[in-house]
Design brief:
Blueprint (H helix, E strand, L loop, with lengths): L42 E3 L6 E6 L4 E6 L13 H4 L3 E6 L17 H14 L5 E5 L3 H11 L4 E7 L10 H11 L1 H12 L2 H5 L2 H12 L9 H8 L9 H12 L9 H8 L3 E6 L7 H11 L4 E5 L6 H4 L1 H14 L1
Parallel strand pairs: 3-4, 3-5, 5-6, 6-7, 7-8
Antiparallel strand pairs: 1-2, 2-4
């Protein structure tokens, strides 16, 4: 919590489809705005069996589904949501164990679990004609949804987010990237020496070092409120199960990409697609992931953002917002 007056409570677990487990209580209060920087109404879905937080802003012919990654939440897109919501419906979810969503203890946090959760959310709300806007592991989660439900996808936007679609060299490029990325090297070392859960279990304290290891370039964005917003979802190790699970799944090889058949891969390849990539990304290198994007979407647009790192919506908020808005208007 920030120094604001305590807002209304998030739905309790029993209100949102709990099976009797008190571990479904989200860490961050529903009405927390972080000094007005997150002014969006909190909504909750129980479609995936836990209180999944999302915001639903604006209206229009287009529906954008924003998917964050590690260890962030919808707050990453706070600058872009008001712009995009001027002409479209914008939905930003918090994955299980992140943001204002709950972190149930009796669940696993592998990629396939997040895909399951997202698919249940989309089906329960009958969302169609979706434009996926995907950052970090939101990429493979969103692509997993697209492979399972291709008829519901209208466009794909990658913002420093991988786009696995059964590419022949996918594993080779992932391996090469991991060998050169400080974040992935730390995960492997920490899992091997038994410190991974201890370190990521205290993200409320070391959120800045974790974000910096992944990479952003604009140190001037760091304020007490900014740190509070990104650290608040993780007040205890139990609340950090999402961040721990994603890292642990990589170290143990437990994540499973959704595999498309030939017809699905071809159908998705024909969708309008845009990749925005912060060139200073030290976690997901453009040299490995932009070729994968171009293989998946041969007609897609690619824009490199100079001076922006892994968290390009933070480093270049206006450019990310403007380029996606222009893309929506053009296709």
């Amino acid at each position: 919590m920030s120094a604001l007056a305590r807002p209304a409570k998030a739905p309790s677990a029993t209100q949102d489809g709990d099976r009797g487990s008190s571990d479904l209580r989200p860490a961050v209060e529903a009405g927390e705005t972080f000094a007005g920087t997150w002014p969006f109404r909190a909504r909750y879905s129980d479609a995936a069996g836990f209180p999944m937080h999302y915001v639903d802003e604006g209206e229009g012919a287009d529906t954008l589904l924003l998917l964050h990654g590690e260890p962030t939440w919808g707050y990453l897109f706070r600058h872009q949501i008001p712009l995009w919501a001027q002409n479209a419906r914008v939905i930003a979810i918090d994955h299980m164990g992140f943001g204002k969503s709950a972190a149930p203890e009796n669940r696993t946090y592998w990629l396939q679990d997040h895909i399951d959760n997202l698919e249940r959310f989309v089906l329960s709300n009958d969302l169609r004609e979706l434009t996926l806007v995907m950052h970090d592991f939101g990429g493979p989660v969103g692509m997993g949804l697209a492979i399972r439900q291709p008829e519901r996808i209208k466009r794909v936007v990658s913002v420093n987010g991988p786009t696995p679609l059964g590419q022949a060299d996918l594993l080779d490029r992932l391996t090469a990237n991991a060998a050169a990325a400080p974040w992935f090297q730390w995960i492997l070392k920490a899992e091997a020496d038994g410190t991974l859960e201890e370190v990521l279990g205290h993200l409320d304290y070391n959120i800045l070092s974790t974000l910096k290891l992944n990479g952003f370039e604009r140190n001037e964005i760091i304020t007490e409120n900014w740190l509070a917003a990104f650290g608040a979802p993780f007040p205890t190790p139990r609340h950090a199960l999402g961040a721990i699970g994603w890292a642990k799944g990589f170290a143990r090889g437990d994540h499973r990409f959704e595999e498309p058949d030939a017809a699905t891969a071809l159908a998705l390849a024909r969708k309008p697609a845009l990749a925005l990539w912060g060139e200073a990304d030290r976690t997901l290198h453009a040299a490995q992931f932009l070729p994968l994007f171009q293989q998946a979407f041969p007609g897609g647009e690619v824009h490199r953002i100079a001076g922006a790192g892994h968290y390009s919506p933070e480093d270049a908020p206006a450019e990310v917002g403007r380029r996606v808005a222009r893309f929506l208007a053009s296709v």
